[in-house]
Amino acid sequence: MFLTPVVPHWPFQNMDTMFVRGLKRKCFDGEEDIEGTLAGIKAIPSYNLQRQSLLDMSLVKLQLCHMLVEPNLCRSVLIANTVRQIQEEMTQDGTWQMINTQSTGQASLDRLVSTDILCRSSRDQAEGKHVPAYGTFNKDFESDQAQDSSETMSTASSVQAPRNLQSNVWEMENPQENKGNFQKSLDQIFETLENKSPNSVEDLFSEVDNSYYDLDTMLTGMMSNTKMGHCDNLETFSTPTNTASNSNCKSDLNDLDHIVEILVES
Amino acid sequence: MLSDRVGFPHKVFGLLSKQPKQNTWFQRFPSLGAGGGNDIQWCFSQVKGAVDDDVAEADIISTVEFNHSGELLATGDKGGRVVIFQQEQENKTQSHSRGEYNVYSTFQSHEPEFDYLKSLEIEEKINKIRWLPQKNAAQFLLSTNDKTIKLWKISERDKRPEGYNLKEEDGRYRDPTTVTTLRVPVFRPMDLMVEASPRRIFANAHTYHINSISINSDYETYLSADDLRINLWHLEITDRSFNIVDIKPANMEELTEVITAAEFHPNSCSTFVYSSSKGTIRLCDMRASALCDRHSKLFEEPEDPSNRSFFSEIISSISDVKFSHSGRYMMTRDYLSVKIWDLNMENRPVETYQVHEYLRSKLCSLYENDCIFDKFECCWNGSDSIVMTGSYNNFFRMFDRNTKRDITLEASRENNKPRTVLKPRKVCASGKRKKDEISVDSLDFNKKILHTAWHPKENIIAVATTNNLYIFQDKMN
Q1: CA angle B391-B394-B396, nearest 5°?
Q2: Nearest CB partner across the interface for B119, out of A139, A140, A229
Q3: Could you read off the pLDDT of B1-17 as tens digits, one per residue?
Q4: What is the nearest CA distance from A102 to chain B, expressed in angstroms?
C-alpha cells in the first residue's frame, strides 16, 4: 500500500520516486507494469492514485491541525497550499470530474468548496475571536481590532447565538448548509479512504494517537476551539434537525447532539 | 588569510557550489583530508543533559545562543527554562584545551499560560534567546515563547552586607528603644550567587506565534516577528510596540504565505530582513515608511523546473535567516539546502550548499511523518568563512566557503572522550554501501539537530540534539 507507517526506518515504496517525477510523467514510465498500447493509459491512473492519496493525507493533516494546542499556522498554510495545488492540477486534468462522479456523485464545485472549508478553518482558528472586552491590550492590538472590526462585531454579537458563531467561523450564510457541507466533506474524506484497502486506513492511523482519529474527539476539539469559554453558551446550542440511529463512527458525525453531550460532560 | 579573500568572482562561486555531490575530495581521500591545510579538526569537549534515552518533553532543547564575548552560552527548553553555561577562565598550564562550560545560572523564564479568549494553552517553550551586549557588570538577555518576550538581568552577587544591629539573632526585630548605637553594616564576601530577575515583560502584542526576535545595532530597540506581523519595541518600554510589517490579508481565506524568520542587519540600524514560507526574503528599510509592507529588496531564486513536485513549495520554505557578521551576506536555510546571498544581488544566491540532497527522493514519506516541516537553523563562524547547520541522525554539517569543502559530523555519546577527533560521517544515497557509510534508510529521523551555535571568536561550537547539548572544539596543538 502507498501509505506507510510512521517509523524512523521505512521500506521506501515507489511512491517517493514517482512523486518527484510526477509532473513529467504524463507519458509512459518504464518502471510501471504496463504493456503495449495501453501503456500510456495505465500509467496515468497510477499517478492519479498516488496524487489522490497525497490529497487525502493532506486533508487529514489539516483536520488534525484543529486539535492541537494551537495549530501551527505555517504548517497549515503549507499543507493547504499543497491541497490547492493538487486540486488545481486535478481540475486541469479533468480527473477531478471523473473521480467525483465515481465516488460521491456530487458536483466538483461542492468538493472544492468543502475542502476550502477545511483549509479555511485552521486559519480561522489561528485568527481567533477578538472580543473587545479587555482593556489591557496595547495600542497595536487595538488598531488590529479596528481592522478586524467586522469580524469582531459579528463575533461579539453572536455570543448569544452559537449557531451564528459557527457560521462566522466557516464564513457561510446558511448554518444548516454549512454544517451539511462540512459533514459532506468529512464523509468524502472517509469514503475515499475506504475506497482503498482497509489496511491503508489503519496504516494511516497506526502511529497516530488514538484520540486523533476518534471522530467525536476531533469534532469536540474543533467545537471547543470555537467556544467562547463560557459554559452558558453550550446550552444555547440548538440541536440539529437530522438525527442518526446507527452506532458506527461515521454516523456520529451527523449527530451534533452526541457532540454537545460530550462537551457538556467534559 | 584564506578567509579574508573576497576576490573570487561570484559566478565562479555559484558554479562550484551548485554541485550537489556529497563526496568531496576531502572524503574520498580521508588520509589527506584530516590534517590538510587550514582544515579544522573537531574534537569532543563536553556534553550536557540527561543520559537516558527516555526524553522528558520539558527537557527538549529549543534554542542555543552564545553571548557576544562567547563566555556565556544560553539554552532554552520546552519546559520554559533557561540554562546559562559559563566558560572557565583558561588554564594557562593546560594549553591543550580551552575552558570548560559549566552551569552558571538556571531559571524558569516562561510558565505555561492559558488564553481564555481562545480556550487554548500557550506553550512555555522558549523559542529564541538573544543576548544584549554587555554594558555593565550584569548580563541581559531576551527570551521569548509564542506570545511574550522577557528581558532578563543576570547578575552576580559575591558580597553581602553584615553587621546590622537592628535584629536579634533569630531574626526578630529588636525593640527600637533598645537600640542605642548606630552601626554601619560592612560588606563581607559570600559564596557567589547568580541571580536572574525579569526586568521587562513585553506582552500582548502578538496574535500569532512569535518565531524570531532580533536586537537592533542601536542596542535600544528590537524586533519580534510572528507568522504574520513584525513589531518594533524599545527595550525600556513595555506597553507600546510599533507594527512594522503586516502581511495578514484582509480575508484570511487568501492567506498563502507566512513569515518564518526575521533579523536586523548587524550594522545598519534601519535595515532588517524577513523570510517567508514561499522561499522569499524581503529586505526592508524603516526609513522608507512607518509600515514596511513594501520591501526595498526581494531575494528569490527562480524555481528549478526539473525538480518540481508537489513538495516544492514546502521544501522552499525558509526556516532560518542569519546575516553574516560583516553584514555583507545573509544565509538562509530551507529544507534541503543552505544558501548564501549577497545583499547586492536579489535574483539568486551566490552560494548554495546541499545539506542532505539524498532526502529529495524521500519527500513523500517525510511529508507523511511531518519531518518535512522541521525547522533547521544555521549559523556562521566568527570570520564568516564557514557555515554550519544540522540534519537527521544527529548529524550536522559544515561548509567552508573558501575551500568549498564540507564535512558531516555526528553528535553522539559514543565519541565522548575529550580531545577525541570526530570522524567524518557519510551517508550513502543509493547503490553499494561502502564500509562506515550509513544508508539513507537507516537514518534515525527522530534524532534531529535543529539548533547549533558557533562561538563568536573561537572555534567552539554548541550543538543541540533532542535533549543534550554537545560542545566541540578544534584540536589545539
Answers
A1: 50
A2: A229
A3: 443 444 444 444 334 44
A4: 24
